Amino acid sequence: MTDWKRILRAVAPRARADIVAAFVALDAEIEAAGIATDLRRAHFLAQVVPESAYLTRLEENLNYTTAERIRATWKTRFQDVAAAAPYVRNPKALANFVYGGRMGNNRPGDGWLFRGGGLGMTTGRANYRKAGFESSPEELRKPLIALRTALTFWVDNRCEAYADRDDVVGLRQVWNGGQIGIAETREILAKAKAVLKTLPAQAKLKALRYPVGAVDGDHAARTTGAVQLLQHRAGLPVTGELDDATLAALDEAEPLPVAKKDANLAASRTVQGAGAAGTFGFAELVQSAGELKDQVESAHAQISAGTVFGLVMGTVIVAGAAYAIYARWDDAGRPLPGFLARRFPSLMGAA
């Protein structure tokens, strides 16, 4: 079963709850339509997500607020901005003007009645007829029906062939009839691919007691740290990336043996992949070192300015960076090294 709720939350965070629910409810039908591999899922989402304003709309938004935007969208319909002005905030008139007399629209009001609808933004009487909704166009704007119609389009047009060869341009041509929105389609495709790789890896890492954080498809600091720790333990290059070798190592990995004394470390909000017994955390050390380097470079820039303000700011930055590392160590439940405890007893809570 595909975890559509998590996938869509990561790819389209603002997605409507009823549209997400439709994906969950129709999981078996999505699979039956041949959308059964991560590459096909990514390509399907790359088409339907931008068409539906990131799964927030199932009907075309024709309520434009400026004539310039109308003119930019329909350059062949409006010779200049002045010609578009009467249609600002006038969606019904705009639809009837730009869609009337084409795509099977042959009656007054057809442009508005058969405006873009569904996950594929089906437009025009002829296309609604082909999809089976000429007599009930509003039905296509309901989540379950919109998704089923998109699946039918996918199957009828053999979209899986384009997806399998990762042909985003060819699939966009089939889906859109051109290349409108190709840049956004590419962006969503890349995001979906990353999410579909990251989610199962996060779930496996969490099951193995790696402190990966949330299973949310976001390859952020905690996930990077957990992957780095896995790579370190497996003797792989420590990159933090989910390459093939790392995924193979993850499949063979054993759960982390977390000792009782390391419970605070494993649960720490600031640990980005630490948690193995007896370690402060290889990935945490890497991250802290990187952050300290950034802070020192910032301090150097301030001090190099040669001003009193710059000297003060540089000193504050270095002091703040040093305290941040101490705070991470303390947050992890680690004792302060003896020489520091003797030199700075206040850090140990001494009066």
UniProtKB/TrEMBL annotation:
<feature type="domain" description="Peptidoglycan binding-like">
    <location>
        <begin position="201"/>
        <end position="250"/>
    </location>
</feature>
<dbReference type="Pfam" id="PF01471">
    <property type="entry name" value="PG_binding_1"/>
</dbReference>
<dbReference type="InterPro" id="IPR023346">
    <property type="entry name" value="Lysozyme-like_dom_sf"/>
</dbReference>
<keyword id="KW-1133">Transmembrane helix</keyword>
<keyword id="KW-0812">Transmembrane</keyword>
<dbReference type="InterPro" id="IPR002477">
    <property type="entry name" value="Peptidoglycan-bd-like"/>
</dbReference>
<protein>
    <recommendedName>
        <fullName>Peptidoglycan binding-like domain-containing protein</fullName>
    </recommendedName>
</protein>
<dbReference type="InterPro" id="IPR052354">
    <property type="entry name" value="Cell_Wall_Dynamics_Protein"/>
</dbReference>
<feature type="transmembrane region" description="Helical">
    <location>
        <begin position="303"/>
        <end position="326"/>
    </location>
</feature>
<dbReference type="InterPro" id="IPR036365">
    <property type="entry name" value="PGBD-like_sf"/>
</dbReference>
<keyword id="KW-0472">Membrane</keyword>
<dbReference type="InterPro" id="IPR036366">
    <property type="entry name" value="PGBDSf"/>
</dbReference>
